[in-house]
Amino acid sequence: MKTYSDRLSKFLSGVLLLLLFPLFSPPVVSADNPYRLGVALGLSGTGAPYCQEAVKGLEIAVNEINSRGGFLGRHRIQLYIRDTQTRPETATTVVTHLIEKEKIHALIGTYSSACALAIKPILKNARVLHIAPISNSEDITKIDPSPYTHSVVPNTYMMSKAVVMGITTLAQEKGWSKYVTIASDYAWGRSSQQIQIDLFRETSPRIALLAAYWPRLGQTRFNSFIVDILAKKPDFVLSSIAGSDNAFWLRDARDYRLFKKVENPGGLVSVTELITQASSIRRGLYGRCRAPFFAHMDNPVMVEFVKNYRAKFGRYPSDWAVLLYDAVHILRQGVEKAASIETENVNAAMKGMTVETTRGRLAFRRIDNQLSCSAYFGRVADDPKYPFPIYHDLQVFKGEDIWRSEEEIKAARRQ
Questions:
Q1: Nearest CA-CA partner of 380 in 274, 250, 261, 297
Q2: Helical H runs in 256-342?
Q3: What percent helix, strand, coil does the chain show, rounded to 5?
Q4: Residue 40: which residues within 8 A CB-CB, separation 6 or more?
Q5: In angstroms, rounded to a whole number, what is the distance separating the alpha carbons of residues 415 and 194?
Q6: For residue 373, which of 192, 131, 201, 204 has the smallest C-alpha distance?
Q7: How far apart are CA 256 and CA 264, in angstroms?
Q8: Residue 358 contacts residue 296 (beta carbons within 8 Å)
Q9: Which residues is 236 bridged to in the sheet?
Q10: Which DSSP category does 82 fall into?
Q11: Does the structure show a pLDDT above 90 at 5?
Q12: Are 150 and 120 contacting, i.e. CB atoms less than 8 angstroms apart?
């Protein structure tokens, strides 16, 4: 069996991309067949920094399972990794190819919420299991739901509610009364920004929104935005920017000394940023993240994963590596519960399933197939245990406390 790197290299050197087909047939399964697992990630474009790390977590999980003979001890996982280029049109093409030509049983992907929303109906129509490990717009599971799509990452509502709760406490302590937002102009940024301002209106109506900024996805210079933010003189700026765009945003903010004058609580500061910007990231900055390993070092599953990851790659795992590792092992648990690799059986087994993950024991909610995973908010600070800063004063918001109510989901689906 070729390794994922062999397949990735082959694809990146020139894979044949086919046109979208309206209807597919699920793969025929027989005993001891390999399990054909598709993976669609933004390995180039804005999502590249996160997705390249995610593949490493995927590799650890697949190697663990295949070393035991594969799913159910006899169905070895064959990986088919494709680059969406963080573009919805590319994502639809490569996923169509994976379904029609590679006959995948399941797909893990992708990075961009716009990509995830684009491929969801294709996977639903093909009756292919879909696990969303990074893309997290709540619309992936809230609106036009697919029974085949399962989210294993805190969605935008969950993350935004955690951010608003964390910032509300800070605002009361510091007397903040006005803010601006800056969010990447695509599904994730739009969803995050709208939810955050709605929640602020509900919980802290005295905090006024002065302006909203919408840099394009792939923005490399934020100078003009920063100049205008400084002119508005807000107490804080709430940012929803990710991937390579986030690195450029933080770079320009440092160059303009923005955060010396304006606070920036609740921006996305994942383990990737903590490691890659260890020497420059501002201590005392409050950030959010989706799956920090250091929050769960009391969990034997996480301890074992971190040990194996460091042994192989010589570094600590990012949020994205954690999420992909969990996604594969959640799929394994679904297969084991179903005692089958038949997609319909596995999908039925995963409905409402409780799973063991690096982040603890979690469960899928039946109404939307959203995993009850936590969101994280904390203060960046040095720690003697690690060669990079982590979060201190870490607040872990449990999924059940921050996800949207079932009544709200039902109402949204009736609109």
A1: 274
A2: 258-261, 271-276, 300-313, 319-338
A3: 45, 20, 35
A4: 82, 84, 91, 94, 95, 98, 107, 108, 109, 110, 115, 119
A5: 18
A6: 131
A7: 14
A8: yes
A9: 179, 263
A10: E
A11: no
A12: no
Place of tokens 């937002």: 181
Fold of 4-155+297-375: Rossmann fold (3.40.50)
What residue ranges in 120-266 does DSSP mark as E strands?
Answer: 129-132, 149-151, 178-183, 208-213, 236-240
State which amino acid sits at residue 242. A
271 closest CA partner among 309, 316, 328, 241: 316
Q: How far apart are CA 270 and CA 248, in angstroms?
A: 15
pLDDT tens column, 332-342: 999 999 999 99
Please tell me if the domain spanning 4-155+297-375 has the same topology as the one spanning 157-295+376-405.
yes
314 contact partners, CB below 8 Å, separation of at least 6:
none
Over residues 258-302, the pLDDT tens digits come to 999 999 999 999 999 999 999 999 999 999 999 999 999 999 999
Closest of 141, 103, 107 to residue 123, by C-alpha: 107
Q: Which residues contact 15 (CB under 8 A, 6 or more apart)?
A: 82, 94, 97
pLDDT, residue 227, reads 98
Q: State pLDDT tens for residues 344-360.
A: 999 999 999 999 999 99
Backbone angles phi, psi at 76, to 5 degrees: -70, 145
d(CA 4, CA 7): 5
Pick the CATH number of 157-295+376-405 from 3.40.50.2300, 3.40.630.30, 2.30.300.10, 3.40.50.10840: 3.40.50.2300
- Surface-to-core class of residue 18, CB atoms within 10 Å of its CB (0-12 exposed, 13-18 middle, 19+ buried): middle
